[in-house]
Amino acid sequence: MGKTKKGDILMGIRGAKRLRQDDNSSWRPGISSPVDLADMDLRKPDPESFARRYQLEVLRKAIDENTIAYLDTGAGKTLIAVMLIRSYAHLIRKPQNNIAVFMVPTVILVRQQAEVLKMHTDLKVGQYWGDMGVDFWDSRKWKKELETHEVFVMTPQIFLDNLRHCHFHFKTVRLMIFDECHHARKNTPYACIMNEFYHRKSEHVKNLPRIFGMTASPVSSSGTSSSNCAAEVQQLETILNAKVYTLEDTAELERVLAYPDLKRNYYDSAEVPYSLLQKFRIELEHIQYKHTQFESNDIYGGSLEKARKKIGKLYLNILYCAEEMGIWCASKASEILLNTKINSFEGSLVCHEFVTNSSKHFLQDALNVCNKFLPSDKSWRCGKNLNGDVVSGYLSPKIQCLIQSLLEYRDWKQVRCIVFVTRVIAAIVLGNLLGYLDCFSGFKTEYIVGSQIKLQAQTRRQQTEIVDAFRDGKVNIIVATSVLEEGFDIKGCNLVIRYDFSDTMCSFIQSRGRARMQDSDYVFLVKRDDVEEERKIDNYIKSEQTMRDVALNRTRTPYDLHAESMPNMEVYCVESTQAIVSLNSSVALIHYYCSQLPGDRYYTPRPTFYINKEIGECIMELPRNCPVLTVKVQGKCNMLKQVACLEACKKLHVAGALTDNLVPAKEKEEEEEEEEEEEDDEIGIEKGREDCKVPYPLYVPNKLVGEWDLDMAKVPFHCYILSFRGKFSYCVPFCNVLLLSRQKFDTTVESMLIQLETTHGGVDVQSAYCGSLDLTSHEVEIARKFQVTVLGLLMDQKLDKLNERINKTGKPNMMYLLLPVLNTTFQGLASSIDWACIKKASFHEIQSHEKISNNNRNCVHTAFGTLPLEMLQNSLVETPHNGRLYYVTDVSKDLNANSTMVSAKVTIGQMKTYIQHFREQYDINIKFPGQLLLCARTLFSVRNFLLRRPQVEKDTVTNAEVHLPPELCNLVSYGIPISVLYTFSYLPSVMHRIESVLSAAQLQKIFSSNQPYNISTFKVLEALTSKKCQECMSLESLETLGDAFLKYVSSRHLFTAYAQKHEGQLTSKRKRIISNYALCKFGCDRNLPGYMHDEPFNPKKWIIPGEHIPSSRQFCQDTSDSMKNLYVKAYRLLKLKKIADVVEALIGAFLICAGEIGAVNFIKWIGMNIDLPSKISITNNLDKRIPTSVNISHMESLLHYSFHNRNLLVEAMTHASYQVPWVSGCYQRLEFLGDAVLDYVITLYLYNKYPGLTPGVLTDLKSAAVNNDCYAQAAAKWNLHQHLLHASNPLHRQITNFVQLIGSSSESTSHSYGWFTGETEAPKVLGDMIESIAGAIFVDSGFNTEIVWTAMKPLLEPIVTPETLCYHPVRELQELCQKENYEWSYNRTEKQGKCCVEVQVNVGNSVYTETCDAANKKTAKKLAAEKVLIPLKGISNQRR
Questions:
Q1: Which of 21-25, 504-508, 1106-1110, 1398-1402 has the weakest average pLDDT?
Q2: In the prediction, which pLDDT does 403 show?
Q3: Which of 154, 295, 1124, 1410 is a plausible cystine mate for 1428, CB 3.0–4.6 Å?
Q4: DSSP-assigned letter for residue 959
Q5: Nearest of 1179, 1362, 1384 to residue 1256 by alpha carbon
Q6: 1035-1066: per-residue pLDDT in tens?
Q7: Kind plus residue range of the DSSP H or E element containing 934
């Protein structure tokens, strides 16, 4: 046996002792230097300071060699284990990779032992149990745990699985502690750990882990002779490769431990009266028979048999309670079980609900039967007359004995009693009975059963809470099964009652050890005059001494472990990882592998074994979707199944179906995602949260960016005329505008129509390139100030920010000019610019007029000073008292400040003069009341004119005329025609569209530089614009098309690239490829978010070209793009899903403009590795027996297609339940491919058929045409079900019912699109057939989608149209309720094995309710919504 370095450990102990003696330092075994000591947490309690002599004696033995510590319960074995772990701390402390493993047999002990280790060591302790989901953790998850913790506390099965799958490496385990090690027998997890790893590696591994076992009984059988005890002890030593060690001198131990007094309380052998019990049995058997005679209609799978088994178990439990405990206990058992939720969930939801409801009905009748045999008098209460209840058979004599035994201790100051039973139902009923009886009103009673019990399991938390309450004295009595026998530290227990006898010697010792208080009692309930029970008790007492004598003898004998007697274990080991599968684990692994294969409600994948014992041969058949179909082995009859499964594991690993860790192969998503995590951090992507918002840059087109500091005589510009044409009559005309850019735009912008929407009607803006023009630097500066002034005033409606806007910035800015032209007829560049208007917009012109104003006789007094009256006409003025801007259109002929105000808001009784109004409203006294008033209007507001529905601003009436006293007006600008202001109010929207087109063109050029396919700039813009923008275009239709195409090409790629993968694996891979997470990452890698438009245009945030930009908003360059430097003008928050939508929309745009090849090239360009071979190799040998099962010729004539490889058609018609040797596969892979192909060809057909549809309608059409209901109805209409190969009676019944319903439906001859409205669920298998046939044609035709559509379209016709489109009832109800502001809700219940859904809609004071039941929630909800819609639609029609 390989040994740990004993010298190092002992040196650490002795050195630590010296330290403790020298300076009272805390001693820690295994510490050999002050550095190690400094690393320890000196605040942790030191077990050595309070450990007893015998504990230190066992510790020294455990350090010397592998040891099994045989000590009584309560002797402190756990503390010895703690000290041993501390002595190994220097070997397992991080950063070393070594670990210690502390194994406990039950889940509830995990927390208890972990807490002790955390209390007495500073090591990092991890605790693990099954409910944590550890069975599904992969190597990556366990690697993180190994990097974090140094001591692992877990159940042995978890450790064994980790070793087998090589999540833990055995060579890194330095110490293994086996709590309750007597469980190391036969094929238990303890024994498998030792046999499969320790003993198998003992010849190859130098440093095997130290073994330390702990037990209070090394013999697990019932009392035996000395020779049998010795054999069991030796067997335990051999398995654990350890020496049993017990104390020769037990004096100290006897002073420490409190052994309970053994007592025997007798009860009479009389049982429940025979006549009463016989009548009860007959009635109980009758209701069992009644509730197990099912009608087989409409019940899926194995529901009937499962219900029969469940009811059978319930019957036996109730009968046991009646026979052994009394009729009242049987009644209580029925009541408890009736009100208990059934936790076991097997099969489909329908199966579970049917079994549950059938069981509930049986329990209700059983409860009624029990109550028939109990007194009907309401004043009767069980237990008031205990003797009478026993005589009547309501309680058994054994129950009476238990009650009387407990009553003997009611005078104790604090009773803490554990009553041990063997049956779960007994624990539950007794716990309730003791809590019910009046004589125990001062006691709090609970029960504890195992967490894996299906009858009424308790969670780990519930068990822990009960035990904690027992320790604290809040619970006095616990009725428990054997779950409380082992390991529980319940020091306050002073009474143990064995209601049922212990099955083994070990059970007796363990349960006795629960009573640890001084003067405790251990009570047997013994049937009077039962010699066998008396003999059993005496045998326990005698055997305990025999076991101790044998252990002492083994302790004294030399170290002889007989390791050579260990049987050779046949295993399969993966060389690369050292993961193994043995005969013991092979069956479980095969069943687990099959459970991961795709199945449905009609077929659960599982292996089938054909064993011929005469010749010692086993043939195992695996499901059709498994790469290994048959395994044939020979061997010993009792091992044939294990040998076959081991051989299958080998072949599955070679085929890649099992990974190198010997777990079912899943996609390498976790490993790849781990590698991508660092990259994801850079772009802010977190998988699973694609709806969260992340900041991304917004790019501005390079052609609109430049610097305004121009050091040149002539500045060249390219000119574009923007012609405005309103489609409505308005009092203000449009003028044309000249757009001047330093760079020439793309041809798309040179002749582009921009359509704007206003509340008056539409406005068309046509752009046209009109040549180049040179301007001086001075002219450029004047033009810049003009556009900043005009657009700034229009946007702000105030003067506050104007001066700040006009200042130039030297940084890159929006560099282009927007200048008014003189007339609507464009005659030439140089002569058409209205320079007079441009110059008058600046303030220096106003100052020069002020100087000559005194020479003009027709002057008025203004807030600006005295000005000529004509200068105020067609001017912009500000009224300082309210800060508003107005445009003066004229001077009033007869109104002055003394005139009565003219306003629509003023009534006759409220009329006042302008003098009164301004005095009362603003506290202003008019100084020049005789001056004529100015006629003015509010300034035009800048709005988003790109919205589909024009934006209406409240409190803004642009046509309203106001009259202003001149002295209250401050001149801002003059000489600007109103048509210029009106036209310029539209320019932010116009330029936003031009900017968007230029951005799209910039992105389009990047596309073109990487592939030879051309794509429309406007299609790119459409793909970049979300529905949220509310513009005339959105990506929704292109996204729908791109999504279908991406699903199609990824499915085709996976189908051909992974010929051995089953449908579940292919679906998982496809899901990852086309997931929002993946698409978002691809989009971010190509900087697509910077070009996206995901919110309505906000004119308030629009940057005026040439205005001053604060440093916080200045442009910066993003050099991440390899083609061009990109200018970032802002950052905004984007949902990650929106980025994925844009990627799909761009795929759709390429598909429309460049065809399938262009779309595939784009998919590759963004980073997807898609390969589309034109051929695939498939076996073409058709078995001669197949044509008798499938009418191939008929199917070909129906499809108008002749198959080159008829195997494909047979495979497309074969359900997974059809397990025959001449059919090599099932339709699942073809269904996977056909689903994507049909989705794509139908979506493309609808897109091309109805090009003018709004995006939402296209999505609705696709939903109505591509769904299982639609396909299933088509399959039934063409009788395709008659050719389906399957072996499932439930499937046959469901298809038959569905086909009959279709045949009797009035809709059966009209169409198959939409959603089936019948009460029977459309079988998914029929829909799968349509998809698999499409997949077969697609593969057989060399991946030709046109041939697929030609063959499948007749089956699906008539195809849904916008006129025939109908919505799903659930969606239709939701939209109606949202529109009418109704409140609605759904409530789901179960009724006789069916799902029942109630829908309730509140309409005012009325409530509309409909309830429907069906096989599943989806169908029931659909039917209920459909019914409640009938009256609601009538109400809506009446309101119209």
A1: 21-25
A2: 93
A3: 1410
A4: T
A5: 1362
A6: 999 999 999 999 999 999 999 998 888 898 89
A7: strand 932-938
> How many Å apart are CA 159 and CA 8, to the nearest integer?
28
Question: Is there a contact between 1182 and 1206 (Cβ–Cβ < 8 Å)?
Answer: yes
Sequence-ordered list of residues with C-beta below 8 angstroms from that of 572, at least 6 positions apart, any chain: 580, 581, 582, 646, 649, 650, 653
Residue 1262 has pLDDT above 80, yes or no: yes
pLDDT at res. 6: 41
Q: Is the peptide bond before 95 cis (omega within 30 degrees of 0)?
A: yes
User: In terms of Cα–Cα distance, which of 325, 483, 319 is closest to 403?
Assistant: 325
Q: Taking each helix axis from N to C terminus, what angle separates 1289-1304 and 1324-1340, rounded to the nearest 10 degrees?
A: 90
| Cα–Cα separations (whole angstroms), residue 776 to 136, 712, 781, 817 | 75, 8, 9, 13
DSSP per residue, 110-167: HHHHHHHHHHH--S-EEEE-GGGTGGG--HHHHHHHHHH-SEEEE-HHHHHHHHHTTS
Q: Is the dihedral of CA 1180, 1184, 1190, 1191 positive or negative?
A: positive
Report the 10 Å Cβ neighbour count for 266.
16
> Among residues 877, 1151, 1115, which one has the least CA distance to residue 1023?
1151
At residue 64, what is the residue type? D
Q: What is the 3-state secondary structure (H, E, C) of 1313-1372?
A: CCCCCCCCCCCHHHHHHHHHHHHHHHHHCCCCHHHHHHHHHHHHCCCCCCCCCCCCHHHH
Contacts of 380 (CB under 8 A, 6+ apart): 374
Radius of gyration of the chain (CA): 44
Tell me the per-residue pLDDT of 301-337, one tens digit each, with 9 for 90 and over: 457 778 888 899 999 999 999 999 999 999 999 999 8
Identify which of 36, 32, 39, 4 has the alpha carbon closest to the alpha carbon of residue 16.
Answer: 32
The identity of residue 1314, as a single letter, is G
Alpha carbon distance 741, 745 (integer Å): 8
Task: Return the SS3 of 422.
Answer: coil
pLDDT of residue 479 exceeding 50: yes
Check if the beta carbon of residue 1162 is closer than 8 Å to that of residue 1146.
yes
Cα(266)–Cα(905) distance, rounded to whole angstroms?
103
pLDDT score for 136: 85
CA dist list (Å): 907 to 902, 918, 1405:
10, 17, 42
- How far is it, in rounded angstroms, from Cα 1243 to Cα 1237? 10
Residue 445 contacts residue 415 (beta carbons within 8 Å): no
For residue 1169 the two structure tokens come to: 């590795």
Q: Cα–Cα distance between 767 and 718 in angstroms, integer?
A: 13
Residue % of the chain over a pLDDT of 70: 84
Return the residue matching tokens 């094995």.
1393
Give dist(CA 359, CA 1218) in Å, integer. 32
The rounded distance, in Å, linking the Cα atoms of 1402 and 1126 is 55
On whether the CB atoms of residues 985 and 942 are closer than 8 A, the answer is yes
Q: How far apart are CA 103 and CA 957, in angstroms?
A: 82
Tell whether omega for the bond before 1358 is within 30 degrees of 0, i.e. cis.
Answer: yes
Residues 1013/764, Cβ–Cβ less than 8 Å:
no
Residues 540, 549: Cα–Cα separation, whole Å: 14
CB 661 within 8 A of CB 139: yes
